[in-house]
Amino acid sequence: MFESIYLAALLTGFLGGVHCLGMCGGVVGALTFSLEVKNQASWWRMLPFQFAYNAGRIISYMLIGALFGALGMYLNQSLASVLPFQQSLQIVAGLFMLALGLYLAGWWQGIVVIEKAGRSLWLKLSPYAQQMRTVKNYRQAGLYGLVWGWLPCGLVYSMLILALSAGGALQGALVMLAFGLGTLPNLLLIGAFAFFFTRLSRNVWVKSLAGITVMLMGLHQIYLALVVSIA
Fold first, then answer.
1. CA–CA distance, 134 with 37 (Å, rounded to integer)
2. Least crowded by CB within 10 Å, which of 80, 104, 122, 135?
3. What counts of helices (H) and strands (E) characterise the chain?
4. pLDDT tens, 37-66?
5. CB contact at 8 A, 165 and 92
6. What is the DSSP string of 146-183?
7. Residue 69 structural domain
């Protein structure tokens, strides 16, 4: 079951690229363009900076994933005698993936409510992010990525519910690592193919396919939770 969680997180990160383009595409494109102008270098020479940004972002995901995984393990140990907590978390994670799939497909915007919940924290962090946008080396790029990882995102928050059900701090961190790696191809390529990817993200069929696939994975998580409880 846990291997299935990691695969679901990886695929959700990749398929959620249509959402990443809207949330992070402007950040990636602007940073890449800024570096190219200042250094008069082609995009591929800026690729190490993009890796540094994304490494920082994924590290932030893993840290908060570990916290959520540890919290889930603690709650499970505390409440296991009262109710099937691990199974309940797995079902909730599956339901969140269903909601996320509807959102990615453009059929329901309910998950935006979750994004709004994190905006107060982002308002406190965004001034630091603005100060870090003048990047001169890889270390600064990585630090910017660490802050960038806290950008309010329903996609990330949905995966944190999955991390909560993963079974522990390490498992929660691995869920978010898998998710972050899944988002990596889309965000690395945005800098070079921003126009193409923007058009792709607006394609109804692309959005629908991504949404349906994520919903199927959510149903699979619910199925696994119910099968484990019966077994």
1. 12
2. 80
3. 12, 0
4. 444 455 566 778 888 888 999 999 999 999
5. yes
6. HHHTTS--HHHHHHHHHHHTSSSHHHHHHHHHHHHHHH
7. 2-230
